[in-house]
């Protein structure tokens, strides 16, 4: 019985001391994230969220099965926020821009002038515009604000306004063209080379559809530009040289004119162009259900039926984009992507939900299936307590039809560390107690044996 008691005490000691080892860690598989239905009533695009890294990976984008046939020789349609391309045709080919040139002119002016500055109309600026080219009836010697000149430039496509602005910014049209080329190169344009400010035909004045998209994208960062290009008409205010209030002009972009057969309600600018050599050209923007698009068409024509392809093709492209794509939610902030057992944590807090730190919305084909979305979870190594709520523990990546989003994974709750100092004190105290018990048992056994020996000696003595 004494032997059994000793063994029981040792076994109790082993069981009590066993928790001093590290808690094992185990990661669960990422929870499945079902794609939200792609709806037209969409949230804001994740590209505007600085907490999410957004990357366009075109090789991962599925080809649209019902892309329209268009007559224009070159085209490009994309979302400027993410760079996702929804349609392109000969987008990198050398083309003539005609008056779509004026959007780069406007950009350079906005970046180098204040709207309230005054420029003087020179006779040379007027003489450089051949008869028959669009103008705003400006007269030599008139003092006109940069803002009014930009309206004349972008609404009725006034060629003399382009020349006046070029002279005001750079002193000459040639110097201004060089400034435009430098700015285009900074924007990433690969083909573009301009020799004037208004797009009058020249063999050395050219661009690509993609180049004009880049320029338009940058222009839309300026509120003044966006406000002007959606104006249906404007009037040149009277001046001392031309006191009459009779210079009113309609916007050449029929997509924004409600009385036009090409009127497109979602369109909000930007600029037309036409020369015999360039054909029919249009850079346009549209916004619908939080999906903003820029479209470029170059090299169009007038069909036998009298249809202007710069307008009809743009409408086709916008309709195609909005009919087939929308912004949808694919992850909500605090969605659980993994549940882990944290090392060195207390029993009550060791199981931790790892959640996403931001909402993720994306442009995607309508009807996209959850199985077509790739999700990757990358957790940090050696995650152990203590952990604070919202502490970054890794990243999650969602690949959605060519768009790749990477966001942080964070701890949903605090994780407390095991109090090892108290635990070890208790273990040591228990060990000490057990040792004392063992010592007492040993001493008791020795005392009992001595008493037994003494009693045996007394019995022998009586017997003798």
Kindly list the characteristics that best describe this protein.
23% strand; 464 residues; alpha+beta; 3 domains; 10 helices; Beta-lactamase; 32% helix; elongated
Q: How would you describe what is shown here?
A:
The chain is 32% helix and 23% strand. The strands form 5 sheets. Strands 1, 2, 13, 14, 16, 17 and 18 form a 7-stranded antiparallel β-sheet that branches. A 5-stranded antiparallel β-sheet has the order 4-3-11-10-9, with helices on both faces. The protein has a two-stranded antiparallel ribbon with strand order 5-6. It has 3 domains: 63 residues; 113 residues, Sandwich (Peptidoglycan synthesis regulatory factor (PBP3), Domain 2), CATH 2.60.410; 229 residues, DD-peptidase/beta-lactamase superfamily (Beta-lactamase), CATH 3.40.710.10. The protein is an alpha+beta fold. It contains 10 helices and 18 strands. The N terminus is likely disordered.
């Amino acid at each position: 019985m004494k032997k059994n008691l000793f063994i029981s005490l040792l076994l109790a000691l082993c069981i009590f001391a066993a928790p001093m080892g590290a808690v094992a860690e185990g990661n669960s598989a990422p929870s499945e994230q079902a794609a939200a239905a792609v709806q037209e009533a969409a949230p804001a695009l994740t590209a505007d969220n600085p907490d999410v890294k957004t990357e366009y990976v075109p090789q991962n984008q599925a080809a649209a099965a019902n892309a329209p046939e268009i007559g224009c020789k070159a085209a490009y349609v994309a979302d400027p926020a993410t760079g996702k391309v929804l349609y392109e045709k000969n987008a990198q080919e050398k083309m003539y821009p005609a008056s779509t040139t004026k959007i780069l002119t406007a950009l350079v002016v906005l970046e180098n002038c204040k709207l309230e500055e005054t420029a003087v109309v020179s006779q040379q600026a007027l003489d450089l515009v051949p008869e028959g080219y669009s103008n705003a009836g400006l007269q030599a010697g008139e003092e006109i604000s940069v803002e009014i000149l930009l309206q004349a430039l972008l609404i009725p496509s006034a060629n003399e306004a382009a020349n006046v602005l070029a002279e005001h910014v750079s002193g000459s049209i040639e110097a201004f063209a060089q400034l435009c080329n430098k700015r285009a190169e900074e924007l990433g344009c690969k083909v573009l080379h301009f020799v004037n400010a208004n797009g009058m035909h020249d063999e050395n004045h050219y661009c690509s559809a993609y180049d004009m998209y880049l320029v338009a994208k940058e222009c839309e960062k300026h509120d003044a530009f966006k406000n002007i290009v959606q104006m249906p008409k404007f009037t040149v205010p009277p001046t001392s040289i031309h006191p009459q209030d009779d210079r009113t002009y309609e916007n050449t972009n029929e997509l924004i004119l409600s009385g036009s057969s090409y009127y497109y309600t979602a369109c909000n600018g930007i600029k037309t162009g036409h020369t015999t050599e360039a054909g029919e050209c249009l850079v346009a923007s549209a916004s619908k259900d939080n999906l903003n698009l820029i479209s470029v068409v170059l090299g169009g024509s007038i069909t036998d039926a009298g249809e202007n392809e710069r307008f009809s093709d743009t409408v086709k492209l916008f309709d195609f984009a909005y009919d087939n794509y929308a912004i949808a939610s694919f992850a909500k902030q605090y969605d659980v992507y993994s549940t882990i057992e944290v090392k060195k944590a207390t029993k009550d807090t060791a199981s931790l939900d790892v959640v996403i730190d931001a909402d993720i919305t994306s442009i995607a084909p309508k009807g996209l299936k959850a199985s077509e979305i790739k999700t990757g979870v990358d957790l940090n190594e050696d995650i152990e307590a203590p952990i604070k709520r919202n502490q970054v523990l890794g990243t999650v990546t969602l690949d959605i039809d060519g768009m790749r989003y990477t966001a942080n994974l964070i701890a949903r709750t605090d994780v407390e560390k095991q109090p090892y100092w108290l635990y070890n004190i208790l273990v040591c105290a228990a060990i000490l107690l057990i040792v004392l018990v063992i010592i007492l048992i040993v001493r008791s056994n020795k005392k009992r044996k001595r008493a037994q020996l003494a009693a045996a000696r007394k019995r022998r003595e009586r017997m003798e």
